[in-house]
């Protein structure tokens, strides 16, 4: 586990942002799939898969960014809001 965290933290800021942004479509898919005309069991399985992928992308992106990368991202978003 420590090797994985070390490897992830060695990736670039841009990679961290890209991985972090992947959680958005996965979260959307985890809930939008409930509108499909499928059985409750299939919907439950799809929810677990997509929600799990969303959480993995979220925590993976945050691990890649680290504390300093997260601060940098917050400052960048704040500067976009001012424009």
* Unreliable residue runs: none
Number of strands: 0
* Helix and strand run: HHHH
Mean pLDDT: 91
Distance between the termini: 41 Å
The domain tally reads: 1
Helical fraction equals: over 70%
- Which structural class do the helices and strands define? mainly alpha
| Largest beta-sheet characterization | none
Beta-strand content bin: under 5%
- Described by the principal axes of the CA atoms, the overall outline is flat
* Assembly classification: single chain
Overview of the molecule:
This protein is mainly alpha-helical. The chain has one domain. The chain is 84% helix and 0% strand. It is built from four helices and no strands. It has helices spanning 2-9, 13-21, 23-32, 40-82. The longest helix is centred in the last third of the chain and has 43 residues, at 40-82. It is flat and about 45 Å long. The protein starts with a helix and ends with a helix.
